[in-house]
């Protein structure tokens, strides 16, 4: 909500614009005032809405037309003033002033101000004037928020005039209500229906007393007494009997209650509700509500917090209407009706996560999907936490974790140095799958998501992402698997993307003699030694063929200090715990990072050099003792190899 307002007064000369401004600030009637009063600024602490208010008086003279138009362009609300005792000034409201605003392209709330009401003939009824003369104008010009009759001389409705002007800016009626048809506008109805659904915690389409009280507390920070709750329901029931069901308000009753607020001039009540649920003046959810500031340092990533997992679990159970622990398409449509829609349609959802035999998303798959989303695009998760009604600050639904251990923010250390750390405390890890066309990457990934094997070959033409959980020593970890199709090389040449990769899964077809060479060529052409890696040989159910290249796969892996390739057959259901191995590597990346493993022999050599140097410094006596110790050890070794009986004797002694 804005914190300052510009109110511009326009109208014919002599209608009392300057006198109204003077009467407001002096709180008395001044007979002789300036033709145009200088801009008046009212501080927020003296206004009901706690906003800084600027009041600008204008001249209707032709010479001042340019100044008038400038002020109108800067205005937030326009007060068109006429004198009730001057018929011409009233006629010029709809003949000149309202058309002028439209000609200037000014789409602002307008307040009609009938001044000098103390001068009106006593025989003329106030209600008659409004009904016969003002209402037709308001029906024609929907920008008119309200008509206020006042008197600067009698100090009648002067402060109220400027309060209504403030209110027209801060709590406008036009976005909510169609004054001509006397109904709420569609966007207002849509927003209030969504709010109703968020407050209906048990999903029975009725707001119980407890739910109404929670709504009241959330919006107005105060509960309702039982008699007040009953009074609200009685008001609704009096005009909309079908709006109260089983002692609670249904959505029709909830909407009618807000219609009454608007029609009775309490539009600010409805606006308080809308704003509390994140809506802006255009009745869209505000950007700062959907995407609050959340900085992620380069050495950190984002995961769901325990509160985030609990929230997504709770709403899954709330919207699982049939209680089968899976979301069918209708249930997905229902929950995503609170938002712009399912955000993963381009990602082959729900194929991207765990489903039951019917293809419906299970709770396991639901949590896995949001774990993946949070890792790859935490801003999307924040937005959907807001759409789904996360209680409190939506940033509490996610958390920062160090990408390579710790809490992150470690400064400029390279990814390689940071991967030297011990076991990581993260829960979600990103795995890149690379391999030649037809090597079986997609089938392996589908098996990870518990999808059945199919012989139908469909080449991957764009990046796909799949997620599931793996149990590692009693701890659940999520692996996010990305396959890039023909874009392997573009990913591998991006340092930023490689730093995000927790495990590089290099897949080759053990029945294709050229498949492994594709991987070795990738490693020759791109700097991949600092990325943890595992080699997987697929299609082990087919005839084994020798891989062409400088070295066989097992020798190649041995040269990199890696474990031998893992042989699997997705078709045969022989996975060899490969996913558990992947999860174990992501937790201890130093165990499969070639550049770190290749450093280890150098470290041992250095240790030996230090040991020899220290030994030389001990002097002749130490050298003599060491010589005899070595001689004793060497003699025992020789003796053990030439005397079987003594070997048996030592084994018994041990």
Overall description:
There is one protein chain. The protein is α/β, with parallel strands linked by helices. The protein has five domains: 167 residues, 3-Layer(aba) Sandwich (Rossmann fold); 102 residues, Orthogonal Bundle (Recoverin, domain 1), CATH 1.10.238; 103 residues, Recoverin, domain 1, CATH 1.10.238.10; 176 residues, P-loop containing nucleotide triphosphate hydrolases (Rossmann fold, 3-Layer(aba) Sandwich); 38 residues. It is 43% helix and 15% strand. It has 26 helices and 20 strands. Strands 2-3-1-4-5-6 form a six-stranded mixed β-sheet, with helices on both faces. Strand 4, helix 3 and strand 5 form a beta-alpha-beta unit. Helix 12 crosses helix 14 and helix 14 crosses helix 15. The longest helix has 23 residues. The radius of gyration is 38 Å and the shape is elongated. It starts with a strand and ends with a helix. The C terminus is likely disordered. Mitochondrial GTPase involved in mitochondrial trafficking. Probably involved in control of anterograde transport of mitochondria and their subcellular distribution. Its EC number is 3.6.5.-. Keywords: Calcium, GTP-binding, Hydrolase, Membrane, Metal-binding, Mitochondrion, Mitochondrion outer membrane, Nucleotide-binding, Repeat, Transmembrane, Transmembrane helix. Belongs to the mitochondrial Rho GTPase family. It is found in: Mitochondrion outer membrane.
Distance between the termini: 82 Å
Per CATH, the architecture of the largest domain is 3-Layer(aba) Sandwich
CATH overall fold name of the largest domain? Rossmann fold
Radius of gyration: 38 Å
The spatial strand order of the largest sheet comes to 2-3-1-4-5-6
Helix content: 40-55%
Q: What is the subunit arrangement here?
A: single chain
Low-confidence runs (pLDDT<50, min 5 residues)? 408-413, 602-654
Main β sheet profile? 6 strands, mixed
Counting H and I runs of at least 4 residues, what is the number of helices? 26
Overall structural domain count: 5
User: What percent strand?
Assistant: 15-25%
Shape: elongated
Number of strands: 20
- Secondary structure class reads alpha/beta
């Amino acid at each position: 909500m804005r914190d300052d307002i510009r109110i511009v007064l326009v109208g014919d000369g002599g209608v009392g614009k300057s006198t109204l401004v003077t009467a407001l600030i002096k709180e008395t009637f001044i007979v002789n005032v300036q033709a145009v009063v200088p801009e008046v600024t009212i501080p927020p602490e003296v206004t009901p809405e706690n906003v800084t208010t600027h009041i600008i008086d204008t001249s209707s003279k032709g010479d001042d037309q340019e100044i008038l138009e400038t002020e109108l362009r800067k205005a937030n609300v326009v007060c068109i003033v006429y004198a009730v005792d001057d018929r011409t000034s009233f006629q010029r409201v709809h003949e000149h002033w309202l058309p002028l605003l439209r000609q200037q392209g000014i789409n602002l709330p307008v307040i009609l101000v009938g001044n000098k009401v103390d001068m009106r003939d006593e025989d003329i009824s106030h209600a008659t004037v409004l009904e016969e003369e003002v209402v037709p104008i308001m029906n024609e010009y929907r920008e008119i928020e309200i008509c206020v009759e006042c008197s600067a001389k009698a100090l009648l409705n002067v402060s109220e005039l400027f309060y209504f002007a403030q209110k027209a800016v801060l709590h406008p009626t036009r976005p909510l209500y169609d004054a001509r048809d006397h109904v709420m506008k569609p966007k207002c109805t849509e927003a209030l229906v969504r709010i109703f659904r968020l407050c209906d915690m048990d999903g029975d389409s009725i707001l119980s007393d407890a739910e109404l009280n929670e709504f009241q507390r959330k919006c107005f920070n105060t509960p309702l007494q039982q008699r007040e709750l009953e009074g609200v329901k009685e008001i609704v029931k009096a005009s909309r009997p079908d709006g109260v069901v089983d002692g609670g308000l249904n959505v029709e009753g909830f909407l009618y209650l807000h219609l009454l607020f608007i029609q009775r001039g309490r539009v600010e009540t409805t606006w308080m509700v809308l704003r509390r649920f994140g809506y802006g003046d255009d009745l869209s959810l505000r950007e700062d509500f959907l995407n609050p500031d959340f900085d992620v340092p380069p050495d950190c990533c984002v995961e769901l917090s325990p509160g985030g997992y609990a929230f997504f679990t709770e709403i899954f159970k709330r919207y699982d209407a049939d209680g089968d622990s899976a979301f069918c398409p209708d249930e997905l449509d229902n929950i995503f009706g609170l938002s712009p829609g399912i955000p993963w349609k381009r990602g082959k959802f729900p194929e991207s996560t765990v489903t039951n035999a019917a293809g419906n998303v299970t709770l396991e798959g639901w949590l896995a999907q949001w774990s993946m989303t949070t890792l790859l695009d935490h801003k999307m998760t924040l937005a959907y936490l807001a759409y789904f009604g996360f209680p409190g600050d939506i940033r509490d639904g996610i958390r920062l974790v160090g990408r390579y251990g710790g809490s992150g923010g470690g400064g400029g250390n390279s990814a390689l140095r940071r991967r030297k750390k011990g076991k990581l405390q993260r829960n979600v890890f990103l795995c890149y799958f690379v391999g030649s066309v037809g090597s079986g990457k997609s089938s392996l990934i589908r098996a990870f998501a518990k999808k059945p094997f199919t012989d139908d070959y469909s080449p991957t033409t764009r990046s796909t992402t799949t997620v599931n959980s793996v149990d590692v020593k009693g701890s659940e970890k999520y692996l996010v698997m990305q396959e890039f199709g023909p874009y392997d090389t573009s990913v591998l040449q991006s340092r930023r993307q490689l730093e995000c990769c927790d495990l590089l899964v290099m897949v080759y077809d053990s029945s294709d003699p050229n498949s492994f060479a594709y991987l070795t060529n990738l490693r020759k052409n791109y700097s991949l030694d600092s990325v943890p890696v595992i080699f997987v040989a697929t299609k082990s159910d087919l005839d084994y063929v020798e891989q062409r290249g400088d070295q066989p796969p097992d020798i190649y892996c041995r040269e990199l200090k890696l474990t031998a390739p893992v042989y699997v057959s997705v078709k045969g259901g022989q996975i060899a715990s490969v996913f558990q191995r992947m999860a174990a590597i992501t937790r201890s990346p130093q165990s499969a990072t070639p550049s770190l493993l290749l450093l280890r022999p150098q470290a041992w050599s250095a240790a030996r050099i230090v040991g020899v140097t220290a030994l030389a410094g001990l002097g002749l006596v130490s050298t003599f003792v060491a010589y005899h110790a070595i001689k004793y050890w060497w003699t025992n070794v020789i003796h053990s190899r030439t005397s079987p009986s003594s070997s048996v004797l030592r084994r018994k002694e041990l």
